[in-house]
Amino acid sequence: MCGRFAFYSPAEATAALFGVSGSLDVEPRYNIAPTQFIAAVRDSEKKADEQVTRELVMLRWGLVPFWAKDPAIGNRMINARAETVAEKPAFRAAYRRRRCVVLADGFYEWHREGSVKIPYYISSENDEPFAIAGLWEHWQSKDSAESLQTATLITTAANDFLTHLHHRMPVILEPDRAERWLAGDEELLATAAEDCPPLKAWPVDRRVNNARNEGDDLIVPSGDVLEA
Predict the structure, then answer these.
(1) DSSP string for residues in 65-118
(2) For the chain, how are helix, strand and coil distributed in percent, rounded to 5?
(3) Interatomic CA distance for residues 220 and 224, integer angstroms
(4) Which of 68, 86, 131, 158 has the most CB atoms less than 10 A away?
(5) How many whole angstroms separate alpha carbon 160 and alpha carbon 45?
């Protein structure tokens, strides 16, 4: 599961790595939680000279299927498993037609040590931002003008480096693999863990447990940095 992450790199420059020109005001965040808005790159529904273009958008984290009667279902749809995403009713339409990549600098996982769960912050070994494979949906209420654009993050089995911290990890994509994902690659998820770029991890203060807490002090190491 991936239930918290951070994105604090300049959004315009990061989006350019993933094929988007233009800007969007994205506030640096160190404790992004479900139901909050996240920065994502997706194919635009508008075409330029018959060419598909990319756009940077803000989507609410927690996918609401287009057929849902109650948008609260999105609170349970923050992650989709790579192993089943193509078949699950909540995700299969988006898997075929509405892919996105979510911009991030790192994510959190909680590792049980005795009776206590210790939060760890995990980032790329070279400190570069990356993307997380995702799906997005448009939901329109049948009873009102309410509409939502929402997203889910795709997870896979943890790689060798992370398996001692947690059994799952987000599908992390560098620019070339993000392009493959957005283009509809059907094989990419099968090798997501082994193709993940090198990572590092370190324990952080348990203040991150509260989604109301923010700031760069949340990612300051409280113990040794672990590297692959």
Answers:
(1) -TT-S-GGGGGG-SEEETTTTTT-TTTHHHHHH-EEEEEESEEEEEEEETTEEE
(2) 15, 40, 45
(3) 11
(4) 131
(5) 39
CA–CA gap between residue 58 and residue 36 (Å, rounded): 10
> Tokens 């992390």 appear where?
172
Of 2, 55, 100, 137, catalytic? 2
Catalytic residue selected from 100, 109, 137, 196: 109
DSSP line for 138-163: EEE-SSSS-EEEEEEEEEEE--TTTT
Q: Which two tokens stand for residue 11?
A: 């959004």
Bridging pattern class, strands 172-173 and 199-203: unpaired
In single-letter form, the type of residue at position 149 comes to Q
2 is catalytic: yes
Decide: helix, strand or coil at residue 175. Answer: helix
Which of 80, 71, 81 is closest to 35 using CA atoms?
71
Q: Count of CB atoms within 10 A of residue 183's CB?
A: 11
* Confidence (pLDDT) at 146: 86
Question: Within a 10 A sphere around the Cβ of 112, how many other Cβ atoms?
Answer: 10
Q: In the annotation, is 227 catalytic?
A: no
pLDDT by residue, tens only, the chain of 228 residues: 789 999 999 999 999 999 898 778 899 999 999 999 999 999 987 665 667 789 999 999 999 999 999 999 999 999 999 999 999 999 999 999 999 999 999 999 999 988 899 999 999 999 999 999 999 999 998 888 889 999 999 999 999 999 999 999 999 999 999 999 999 999 999 999 999 999 999 999 999 999 999 999 999 999 999 998
pLDDT of residue 50: 60
